């Protein structure tokens, strides 16, 4: 292995963040350039969806600290009206802290512990592929999986930097290697919690440029109910370099939270044939854990659910996005009209901007949703959740929730239509024996038939519903869109029901007729709730 003292990779100036320029060109840039050219950049263009949130949060941490604000709405409006982000304070800040942005520094490598070693001895170095969270582990190797942890692959420094951020944010409980100097290690192991982003349903608004995206997520300090930050809210690079020990504590604010060190990581590198650093190995151990009760008042990029604990104390849990379904199907809890404080802070901030006339009601943002579903004991990644929902800020206004109510009612209608269609599918599947047993193969088949019919309908309604959301942004009276959505749902649902009923054998025509009556009655009731003037054809 080459001399680590001679290896460096400066994340401020070296290219490592993949972006897409406004002209469509895909390039990689450093932190300095991505902020200086944010107005020329359409957005981040990472290869793995789970890398986008931690990179975005890293840039937000830099901005909060470099700008020492924005302090209030006036400061924010000045930033919004400017063509570019202010270069001088950003460049000065990055220059001051440049030494903490060296990925391979010998004393304080970026987001790592320089002398991290495993209790098992010999450093504990594992193949670099172990840094990739999607790599299969142990005997659980899916067919066609392109990367497994034992592969002797080499990562470039840019690739490794992105995966280091990703691992802190989304790491599994499989990162159990015990570290020397960690008093919590038992039998060579220390099981961490899943990364912070893995425990929440991440949502962030995206603008037309990266500059807009950053500002839409940069809530002013004065909005203490939406964001927690200030002079004492320090990101990881402004804190003392870490060692192998770790703690459970509350975050001091969003800068601390956005750069949370959920793991202890050490990269092993050597100089490649091209003279550039090549990452050959990695050691990943448990890191800091968040004090769960303290996160709800700090994290602005997730919505919350109010619940009662076993001891009847009121608690809040983050709203998780569900795998395998369109994000708009969870719109009601995301918008949280009944409990506005449960809405993600960044979405409430957009509502403030619309109420104050800074953003027009028809202004469209793309709501980025990213999440992971974990496998058994959260030791592996089971599923990826990612979606982008184009929505007008009219949905987020606080003073007039009419548009949001139409959207929520529209989802409720789609849900009820899918439920009614599932009943038809079940009866068509079961035939004359319409009563489904609770358990057994027949029960499983009936549930599968219901689910398949419902999911097919949701897929058919996906594009029309997304159009409905955009139309709500330009509607003077959102309620005028209710009849057209009710008709859209009725036509698609009836067409799907007719296809199902066509499969019912002629000798079961009575069962089919009975099912159709139930279906039409249930659907008609739901349509009337959405739009009393929508008449069944």
Characterization of this structure:
By secondary structure, the chain is α+β, with helices and mostly antiparallel strands. The protein has 3 domains: 291 residues, no CATH class; 93 residues, no CATH class; 129 residues, Orthogonal Bundle (Topoisomerase I, Chain A, domain 4). Strands 4, 5, 8 and 9 form a 4-stranded antiparallel sheet that branches. Strands 2-1-3 form a 3-stranded antiparallel sheet. Strand 8 and strand 9 form a beta hairpin. Helix 2 crosses helix 4, helix 10 runs antiparallel to helix 11 and helix 12 runs antiparallel to helix 13. It is globular, with a radius of gyration of 26 Å. The N and C termini lie far apart (76 Å).
Distance between the termini: 76 Å
Provide the helix percentage: 25-40%
Low confidence ranges: 138-145
Return the domain count.
3
**Which class do the helix and strand fractions yield?**
alpha+beta
What's the total helix number? 13
Main β-sheet: number of strands, strand sense, barrel status? 4 strands, antiparallel
Rg (CA only):
26 Å
Q: Averaged pLDDT, please?
A: 89
**Oligomeric state of shown chains:** single chain
- % residues in beta strands: 5-15%
Helix and strand pattern: EEHEHHHEEHEHEHEEEEEHHEEHHHH
The count of β-strands is 14
User: Based on CA inertia axes, which overall geometry fits?
Assistant: globular
